[in-house]
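=== RUN LOG ===
request id: a7f3
mode: sequence -> structure
chains: 1
length: 228
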Amino acid sequence: MAANPENITQVSSMPIPPMHYVKLYTDEAVKRGTAPKPPPPIQETYSMFGVTINNDDAIIQSLESQGIKRLYSAKDIDRKKELRKLNHSILVNFLDLIDILIKCPESPKRDEKIEDTNLLFIHMHHLINEFRPHQARETLRVMLMVQRRKRTQFTGKFKEHLEKVESIIQEAIDNLPDTDVENGMDTSDSKDFKDKDTKVNEDSDKENCSSLDRIMCQIVDELSLDME
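=== RESULT ===
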């Protein structure tokens, strides 16, 4: 019995395009709270390319833990040198495989060369993966250098604008009218007022002195008359 076409569901091996998720996280959806929540963190294991991976496992697993025979020493390894050697070995194995396919395609050595070439590619891929931490550090270093350069440029521009503002303010202060002249006029007026006060006081003192002299003269005259 043939299956009903309506009940058949097609499942893609590839994930949905990113735009499908982008449309779900619009500003309006986020404000309304209808945007999907992020997936919870993986606790123990997860599957990647059909391989079950444990969270406690090292990011770069050793060849021995994967059941692969190591072709080079694990101590004091020069990765650049080993990559060159692996590249040369791959080329030699590829030429040997072509020679076997030409002369005797059904020879068992053909499968051996294929396995050897596969093993060499695995080792090359593993050595390249061991450079990933170094690549991450260099990428982070470059990012920090770029951020530092941008902040230095921003600081330099800010100092230039600050100096311009300070010069404008100083120029405005220098162009303000001089207040010493007004103060001088005020002091001269106060001096005139003080001089007038002193003159009035002197005149009053003179008047007081003249009256006292007059009284003293009268007393002296009366005494002189009594003596006579």
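=== NOTES ===
The CA atoms of residues 199 and 205 lie 10 Å apart.
Strands lie at 45-48, 51-54.
=== END ===
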